[in-house]
Each structure stands twice: as C-alpha cells, then as structure tokens.
Records
---
Amino acid sequence: MQITTRQLGEATIIDVTGDIDLASSPQMRVVLLRELKANRVPRLALNLKAVKYMDSSGVASLVEGLKLSRQIGNRLILYGLAPALRDVLRLSHLLKMFEVYDSEEEALAL
C-alpha cells in the first residue's frame, strides 16, 4: 500500500493506493490519526479510488479516524469507493456513518 498526502485549499487529501489489510492498516492508521490529531486539519478527505480491498482492520482504522474527527470537530470524508469497499461499509452498517462521495470535486465542494 502507498499513501501520499496533499493539500488542496483548507482540505488535506490522503491518496491511498493498494489493499488495506492487516499488514497495511497500521500505516494508514498512523497517517490518518497524525493528520487529525497532530496537524488538526479541518477537513480530511480519503481518496480510496485505487483501493480494491479492505478488511476489518482497515474498517477499524476508518472508524477510529471518524471517532477522533467527531471529537475534535473536524470532518473526515471518504470518496472514490470501489463497489467492494462500499459493500464492506454497507454490510457492516457503517456506510451511513461516513460522509461518502463519488469524486474529489463532490467531496470538497461542501
């Protein structure tokens, strides 16, 4: 898995490429929590267009990020979910908990 971070206006975008599984989810968790906690970004968008698979450890990292973002009053946005990722979140009843958009433009428009 590869993770890059970029700034676009007041939003920070984390681009994730590759599978998010037990081996790679700790790396994603570190980046996600660093941006929310240490850098205190007001809006954090996760670009998941290049992620085809996510297991429960990846979902747990997203939930932890969502919980922290709500505690500190920031927004965590997901976009570009492949159908398999959308199904994982839907089946775990978490899809409606996240702000989810199809594209970067939609995610950053609000």
---
Amino acid sequence: MTFINEYISDEDREKFDIDEIDKRFIVGGVYAGDWTINRDSNIYLRVVSRGREEMSHQSKWTLYWKGVLIELELDNISTSGRAGGDRHGHKLLRRINIPDQLEAKYEEIIEDLREALTVYKDGGVFSTAKKYSLTLDVMEEK
C-alpha cells in the first residue's frame, strides 16, 4: 500500500493522540482533520500549523514515522500550473527534528517525507491537482 490522503477517523484521532499533538501548536494551529497516511508502513504526514500574512509560505508538520513523532518545518517556495490540472510544487525543508535513535534512518525518512508530500499534492484531501510533481530542497543534509 502507498500513501493516501484521507480524513482522520475518530478511532485514529484517539489511537495517534491527535488532540494532544494539536495542543502543542496553538499559534498558527490548523487542527487539520486530514492526513496523508501509509498504513502498511505505519507513517503519516499532517500539517499542524501555518504562518500568517508575510509568513504564509511557512508551515509546521508532524511526520509519524514507524512509532516516532517527528516535527518539521517547510517553506513553500512556489507552486506552478493551474488548479485542477498538472501542478509542480517546490518546497524547502528548513528543519527536521529527528531523534538520535533514528539518525541512521535519515535518508529513508527524507524519502518517505518526499513521497508523502508528493501524494499530499497541493492540499491533501482538498487537492485539485490531476498530476503533481515535487522538488524538495533540504536545508541541512546529514
């Protein structure tokens, strides 16, 4: 199974403690009721906060990776193409907080993040893109 965009069920909200996670992101918090998930791999990606006004290109996300919650920050550099058609996103991974026990898995985590963002497209369950491609720049390589 691959990543899919879906609404979070009440059962999953409880299982993954989503409400407690949301409490950490009060400023700019979006309380997203959807995610991009790969159930077979036990990985999900979810936006938890977005910047406002001049910081609207910045966002914070949680990546639940095989039992560990990882926080990350992305900048949306650009999105090209027309809504409802083929689109291309260019994002910058500004920060990723990978726990020490997962440092050896850094490249695998980045690849899973890239795949999840590509499936997320331009809005997860709200995406209008028929096709989507992604360029993900990583600010700090490990």
---
Amino acid sequence: MEHSHDGQGHDSLAARLAAVQQEIVAACQRVARDPADVTLIAVSKTFSWEEILPAYRLGIRHFGENYMQDALQKISLSATYPDLCWHFIGHLQRNKVRFWSSRFHLFHCLDSVALARLLQKKAEQDQVVTSVLLQVKLGDEVSKSGVLPAELPFFMEELAGFPRLSVGGLMTIPPFTVDPEQGRAYYQQLRNLRDRLVARGLADQRVFRHLSMGMSHDFVVAVEEGATMVRVGSAIFGPRQR
C-alpha cells in the first residue's frame, strides 16, 4: 500500500496532482500560452523515494531537492529510471560542490561568481556541462540569497568565462505573501529582467529562456506571468513532515 503524507493513500496524491495540472492548463489558457512550455517540478525534499515513486507513476518526471545528501540518496535509488530529472533548488554550500552529481538535470540557485568557479571546476573534472539558472534577489529580505537585479549584467559577463556552465535563465523566491496576487509584480520583474538581458545581447534567447518561479501557493500567478518552471511541493504531496 502506497501512502502519501496525509495518510489518505495514492488516490489523494493523484487528485492533488490532477488539480495542480488543471490549474496550470487554465492559467496558460487565460494568457494564451502553451501548457507544454511549463514544467511542473514536484518538490520532493523531506519525502522518501518510496513516497516519491507514486508521483513518478502518475507521470511526474521532474523532482526538486534542497539538501545534497538527501538528494544523492534518491538519485542512487532512482538509477533505473533514466527519464527522471532531478533539480537542485536549494542553496548550495561551496563545501558541497564536490558532491555535485551529473545526474542533476538543473541547478536553480547560482548566486555568486565564487560558486560558479567551483561548479566550473567540478564540471571540468567530470567532463560534463552543468546547466544552471541564476537566482535573483527581488525584495529586501536579509535571509534570501541571490544576485541583485542591477548586478545581473556584470554577473552574466563573468559567467561567459565559465564554458562548462550553461546558463538557462533566472529563478527567484520572492518575499512570501498570503495573497498570491502580491507576488505578481515580482514575477513580472523577473520576466522583464530576462527579456532585457536578451535584448542587450548578454544572453542567447534560445538558451536563456527559463523563469523558475512560483510555488504551491502562487504558481498560478507565476504561470500567468511567464514561468517556464514552477516548484510545487505541498500542493502535490500534502503537508511536509520534517
């Protein structure tokens, strides 16, 4: 018997997942977007591989992890599922870069040149290209990391010197607001930042296209504002247990 965290089993997981997917489709329809342009990342941090597997069986292929050891364990347990994409969506401490696995599909939180240098070195050792997004700090919360919008052009120029990093776009975690509508301005800002970097010739539109933004409480607003990836945990898996 497969259980989800709220104890109601597989059916409620299927129902929650279907509801999230329907909301993404409806949001796309409202703004004339193709739902295929939005990747749903199921945030699986703190959930075991056994708890994640039912979501895989329901068609989810993208999973988001925040903690390196936890993620590596799941990567190893999922080795027989080659179509599964692991996203690292948390802060990556520099002393953890040596554990970085080429099985990660994408790193969402590149926020410093120092971290970029370490990831470039690791990618050289592993003979791979590592896909990254730049974490942008919108809002003035001290606790959040990220590159300030004004620093993005300089950061992009620095990153041009790291050929083994493929920079695919921007990511943000705006200040939490109870009303999802209050997050809209942040998501508009991130989209405009991406478009300006492309317009200035600092990024190639074909590669630099992603906007990783929106979580369980506000992913609908994020999709309406152009999110290409939404990171949804509790709305799919139910309340988190630490």
